[in-house]
Specification:
about 220 residues, mainly beta, 6-stranded antiparallel β-barrel, 3 helices, about 50% strand
Length: about 220
């Protein structure tokens, strides 16, 4: 359950913060990017209306009571969180400004990017040699945090623990390549023939946070 602190975090978001907006329709997934105009605590979240091709293509779905999912990253020197919630469009304003007014959420999901606890996910990925594009194993990224994660693939006996590899994570419009070092191998259910490979990220703190943010946002948008 969301805490009062989570809602206070939402209420204190800075104007012009980037917002990821997903329109929920029966036949397609529509993803848009917007900017925060402001939050009226307990009443509404106000976003800017975009005018790029993605927004133009979504015009027929920008209407009152349209279901949406909102995701936004709140980051400062002490913490970084992804806030996500489901709601509906309350009003589309184009007279005094170009605004999309979203009904204030009753429930809120918060994912901390700087905690050591891993975020469970399931994204297609592969391991390649650190110095080539040869695919060594294909599988799924199962969880991730700023300290590391877990990759599930076919069980192999020739992986050397503490060896470095490239983890290639398949996002919608790009392949995210991350340098990792394998730290352990754990067999999953024997009949599955799969193993889970624990790894740490071999990147600087700022780059690591940006990578984890991209992966988690992709997972939440899926």
């Amino acid at each position: 359950m969301p805490s009062e602190k989570d809602f206070k975090t939402l209420d204190s978001l800075n104007c012009n913060t980037e917002v990821h907006l997903q329109l929920l329709t029966p036949t397609q997934t529509i993803r848009l990017r917007s900017r925060l105009i402001g939050v009226d605590p307990g009443r509404a979240v106000i976003l800017s209306l975009g005018n790029d091709k993605a927004w133009q293509g979504a015009t027929s779905f920008l209407r009152e009571r349209q279901s949406v999912v909102i995701r936004v990253v709140k980051s400062d020197e002490h913490d970084a969180n992804i806030l996500a919630f489901r709601s509906t469009i309350q009003q589309v304003v184009s007279s005094t400004g170009r605004w999309l007014i979203i009904t204030y959420p009753r429930e809120l999901q918060t994912v901390s990017l700087r905690q050591h606890s891993r975020v469970p996910i399931n994204i297609k990925a592969s391991l390649t040699a650190i110095d080539s594009s040869e695919v060594i194993a294909s599988g799924f990224l199962k969880d991730i945090s700023i300290k590391g994660g877990a990759f599930a693939a076919e069980a192999r006996s020739n992986f050397i623990i503490d060896s470095q590899f490239k983890l290639n994570v398949e996002l919608d419009d790009e392949i995210l390549t991350i340098a990792v070092t394998l730290k352990n191998q754990q067999e999953l259910e024997p009949q599955s023939g799969l193993a889970q490979y624990g790894f740490v990220l071999d990147t600087e703190e700022q780059e690591t946070e940006a990578l984890v943010q991209k992966v988690v946002l992709h997972h939440l948008n899926s």
